[in-house]
Structures are given as C-alpha cells and as structure tokens.
Amino acid sequence: MTCKTLSLPTDVPQIASTLADCATDVIAWCAAKRLQLNADKTEMMWFGSAANFSKTPLVNRSIRIGSVHVQPLAVVRDLGVMIDAELSMRVHVSRTAHTCFYHLRRLRSIRRQLGRDVTARLVSAFVFSRLDYCNAVLAGLPASRLAPFQRVLHAAARLVLNLRPRDHVSAALRELHWLPVAQRIDYKLCLLVHKSSRGQAPEYITNMLKAAADDPSLTTMLSS
C-alpha cells in the first residue's frame, strides 16, 4: 500500500508521476533479486479534503505500475483499522459499532443464564476489546463522530445490569466504573505517554515524544 498526501489539486499529476517512478524502481529492484512485484495487489490512497478531491478528476489520480493502472481507494484496512481518504474515521466507527451491537444481541439472548459477572466479562472480551482497539487514532474527533461508540457503551451497561432500554445509564456507568468513550481514548493516550516516559513503550513511539523540559523554547516561555 502506498500513501501520499494531497497538498493541492494542481500537484496531483506530478505526485502521481513520482509515485509511478518509485514503483518502477521497486519493480527493477525486485527483478534484480529474482522477485516479482504483484501489481494487482497494490493499493493506493490519496489523503485530502472533500473540496480538493472534487477538483481533481479520478483518472488523474491513478498510477501505472508495470502494465496495471492502480486506482485510488476510498477506504483501506490497516491492522484492522478502516482508514478513509478524508481521515474522518467514519467507516471505522460505523463498522466497529455494528459488530459490537451484533455481539450484544447474541449475549442478550443468554443473559438470564449468565448472571452479571459473567456477562460483564463477556462484554469486555467481545465488545470492549473492539471499542478500545487502536482507539488512539480516534483522538480529536468530534463527539458526534464518536456517538455510535457511546451508544454501544450504553447498551452494554443496560445488558450487564439488566436495565430496560429507556433507563438512564449515567449511574450504571459509575457503578460499573466504565469511562465514557472520549475518556477511554484519553486514557489510552496518557498510558502511552506514561510508558514512553518510563522507557516501556516501543521505540517508534518514544522517538515521537519529547519532554517539555528538554525543549529550550518551551523552557524559555515557562520561565518568562
């Protein structure tokens, strides 16, 4: 999968040509190593705003790899996360919420036989594992975009505590010690930063973070 950021609509032909040249170099390298690049399985995505995409014809956004014209995709799947061209994460949230509701419906059919504790454990295994998976990529999204996840959380609380569909869940969430979706995302980010500061995070994460005390510009601003 090749990703390139769309800066201006007028830059598209030049960027597409550069990508095609890079692909040609990769094909030549593979041939030198007695390997063959499968162009049919190559995926490409442009990232940009809807306004910029509307100004760029789709035909100009394709690249040629060998004898294959690779068309850009609107959504790609990377490590289980659905990434769309506008980085709105709308598709990922929608599909994940749909899967979570499916598992909640299955658990509801056997809720009476399970009891509260077992139901809570199954909700954590089948639902929360999906809500919290790579949820750091959802940081900064508006509450309206995260609303499907919050509805999943409310439905899960009603299931565990055996509440009626119209019962309020604020007290239920406090009783279960479940954080709202936005706070779950913040918690994940704080945990990553904490582990990074203690040298317990992967190196690629640690390299992206820098302590404020080590930044001279920030130190000067704080002292003034």
Give a description of the structure.
- It is a single chain.
- This protein has 2 domains: 2-73, no CATH class; 89-197.
- It has helices at residues 12-32, 50-54, 90-108, 111-114, 116-131, 143-160, 170-176, 181-197, 203-206, 216-223; strands at residues 2-5, 44-47, 63-65, 68-70, 75-78, 81-84.
- The strands form 3 sheets. Strands 1-2 form a two-stranded parallel sheet. Strands 3-4 form a two-stranded antiparallel sheet. A two-stranded antiparallel sheet has the order 5-6.
- A hairpin with a 2-residue loop joins strand 3 and strand 4.
- With 224 residues, it is mainly α.
- The chain is extended and about 60 Å long.
- Mean pLDDT is 85; it is low at 1-6.
- The chain contains 10 helices and 6 strands, in the order E-H-E-H-E-E-E-E-H-H-H-H-H-H-H-H.
Which SSEs are present, and which pair or pack?
Blueprint: E1 2-5, H1 12-32, E2 44-47, H2 50-54, E3 63-65, E4 68-70, E5 75-78, E6 81-84, H3 90-108, H4 111-114, H5 116-131, H6 143-160, H7 170-176, H8 181-197, H9 203-206, H10 216-223
Parallel strand pairs: 1-2
Antiparallel strand pairs: 3-4, 5-6
Major β-sheet annotation: 2 strands, parallel
Q: What's the pLDDT, averaged over the residues?
A: 85
Strand neighbour order, sheet with most strands:
1-2
Fraction of residues in H or I helices: 40-55%
Total helical elements: 10
